[in-house]
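does this look right to u?? 2-acetamido-2-deoxy-beta-D-glucopyranose version
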Amino acid sequence: MKHAITALLIATAFVAAPLPSTAQYEKFPFFKCGVPTPYSFPGSSASFGNGTFCGTLAVTPPKNASDPCAKADLRKIEVNINPACDVKNTIVKATINGVPTAVSPSFFVPAGAPEGSVVLRLTQLGLGLGNDGDNICITLSAKTPGATNACTNLESLCQAPPGAAPGTCVAALVDTTLRCCAINEVSPVRPPPRLTCFYLHPRPTPAASTPFIFNSRECKRATDDIRYTIDNQIAAVGAELDDRVTPFHNCSESVASVCWAFSSPAEGAKLQEWAKDLVVRWQLDAIGFLTEFKCYPWLIGHQIEMVFAGYGTYPNLPRGDINANATQDAPPEQANIICTPDLSKMTYPKCTCNTTTFATQFGVQKWMYTYPGRKPTTTLFCFTVLVLNASDPTSPCGRTDKLFKAEIWGDDKQRQKLKGIAVQPAGAKNLTYRSPSWGAPGDQTIKVSQLNWTPQQADGGRICLELESNTDLDSFCLFKLGKTCWINFFDESLACCPLYPSTSIEQLLGN
Ligand SMILES: *[C@@H]1O[C@H](CO)[C@@H](O)[C@H](O)[C@H]1NC(C)=O
Ligand SMILES: *[C@@H]1O[C@H](CO)[C@@H](O)[C@H](O)[C@H]1NC(C)=O
Ligand SMILES: *[C@@H]1O[C@H](CO)[C@@H](O)[C@H](O)[C@H]1NC(C)=O
Ligand SMILES: *[C@@H]1O[C@H](CO)[C@@H](O)[C@H](O)[C@H]1NC(C)=O
Ligand SMILES: *[C@@H]1O[C@H](CO)[C@@H](O)[C@H](O)[C@H]1NC(C)=O
Ligand SMILES: *[C@@H]1O[C@H](CO)[C@@H](O)[C@H](O)[C@H]1NC(C)=O
Ligand SMILES: *[C@@H]1O[C@H](CO)[C@@H](O)[C@H](O)[C@H]1NC(C)=O
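got this back:
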């Protein structure tokens, strides 16, 4: 008896297997389908990157009004499902023009279809010839979070026809009589990615001796830091990025930017409040306002503009998925801050002379560059002299037309680190080395006397400290902020000695 039942079951299984006579229904939708009906989803489906996919229904009655299906309704949409999709773990919801369908979509195994076939059915749609342009959406989600096979995108949900792009869905559009049925392929098209960018622009005011200019290394360093912070926040709030865009940075001389793309505006919105707080906080951080001197030397006279917006040419930016602007979002008293060093605690120079910047026409570039010294163990740290406009060219200081001598703030307890001084007026072929020369013990002053440079010799002239290569300028130059040394330029009367900082870009960037 038991054997008989087994034999019967086996026989039944064989009967259920597709027979040659049913071969015409071995393919989706597994019943007779394929006459012209008025319904189609032309073009593509839109994806919003959050599991929602939408198509627009087109109603175009056949040219021959006598066609049997010319006035058919649209009751059902059936979709061929990828056999690998874990339908038990996938929830599908459907809406028509935003209204949930009367009956929830469901998966079923069509009778007589080859093993593994699965179909998704949306039924009782109640659509007809008047529904041209209706927006039909399905939203996919996993029943249990983290279910590995749940199909939350069209690539995993739909069985694409051979040769079609993954994510192409084949749908049967069926009427109430089941006689009018058209097959439609809907190919996936995502809207193009929308970039969101962060922009950093140090804006010079008249108080800046020269505008801040990014070189490629500084820009990379700044944008790496910014990306690190933004990436961390994206991970912390679980915002999803558009996988078609690799985040990138871009630098012009005055603007550093970092760009990426969220998978939808809703993902970007998760960082909106954080971004506003960030630009307000970073605007102060970036100029060194929270340090003892309230300003990084390389940004003296600058304001910092920081913006989150879309991709464009600064400052003409479209909106992005995050929008913030430090100048707007910060309280006005902060937004108006110009980087101005507080030098009230500075103990240099010891001599009495006018240290006001722009008192004479002689100044210095904000970056010091390094060169090899005379020995393998020494390095030249070079100031580059600049000719500026004196603030009052008719004043006694402003009339100065000779760079008589220079002095540099340095720690005379570390005088053994200074191996030489090298100078090179503009136009001279070679550096000229001199022995180190220090002021009286306790003056903390390195002397570079008897320059007597004309403005032509001064503009682009170099004054270099030859130091042991391992010297830390924060220590040797005594300022203790940002690898910066201070130099002043005297006129012949020694009454005028405008004082300027210059920063070793190599030490600052950590080489
Ligand atoms: C997905 O995004 C679209 C467009 O932003 C939105 O209309 C829809 O409500 C979202 N759906 C879900 C489930 O979040
Ligand atoms: C229109 O359809 C009817 C019914 O199928 C058919 O008899 C007729 O020949 C068709 N007319 C044209 C112009 O195709
Ligand atoms: C980077 O910025 C420069 C200067 O603004 C611009 O010419 C260039 O197109 C930008 N590159 C990219 C990849 O955005
Ligand atoms: C930021 O806001 C300021 C103040 O409203 C405005 O002048 C500036 O153009 C804005 N920057 C950008 C890039 O939109
Ligand atoms: C120093 O020079 C500046 C600019 O020439 C001038 O405005 C200022 O009054 C001078 N200071 C002193 C103490 O003489
Ligand atoms: C100095 O002032 C003149 C006249 O205002 C101007 O043309 C020139 O660019 C200025 N030079 C510098 C280095 O600022
Ligand atoms: C500059 O230095 C080179 C190599 O050390 C030397 O040959 C040359 O004579 C020097 N030129 C001058 C003008 O001192």
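The two ends are 87 Å apart (CA to CA). idk if thats expected tbh
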